[in-house]
Amino acid sequence: MTPEYLELLVTREMPFGKYKGRLLADLPGHYLGWFAREGFPHGELGKLLELMYELDHNALRHLLDPLRQR
User: Fold this and answer.
1) Which domain of life does the protein's organism represent (predicted)?
2) Are 25 and 68 in contact (CB under 8 A)?
């Protein structure tokens, strides 16, 4: 993980699926959990979703709040 990945979570939108257009940081936990069970996409998007899953699973979403205020 790099600091840039945290910034991307609050700026990048989900490119497909039920939550298309929603910020990655705003994806619901059950959706992230589904990816954790079924497999994350390849590439940067998969890494970002996996990071967001870890933040959600460990109740660390609040760490993104300062980045949202920029």
Assistant:
1) Bacteria
2) yes
Give yes or no for residue 70 having a pLDDT over 90: no
Measured between alpha carbons, how far is 1 from 20 in angstroms, rounded to an integer? 24
Q: How many CA atoms lie within 13 A of 48 on its CB side?
A: 21
Q: Which three-class secondary structure state does DSSP give residue 9?
A: helix
Query: Which distant-in-sequence residues (6+ apart) come within 8 Å of 67 by Cβ?
Result: 6, 7, 9, 10
Angstrom distance (rounded) from CA 37 to CA 4: 26
> Which residues, in sequence order, are CB contacts of 36 under 8 Å at separation 6+?
50, 53, 57
Residue 34 · residue 17 · CB < 8 Å: no
Domain ranges of the chain: 3-68
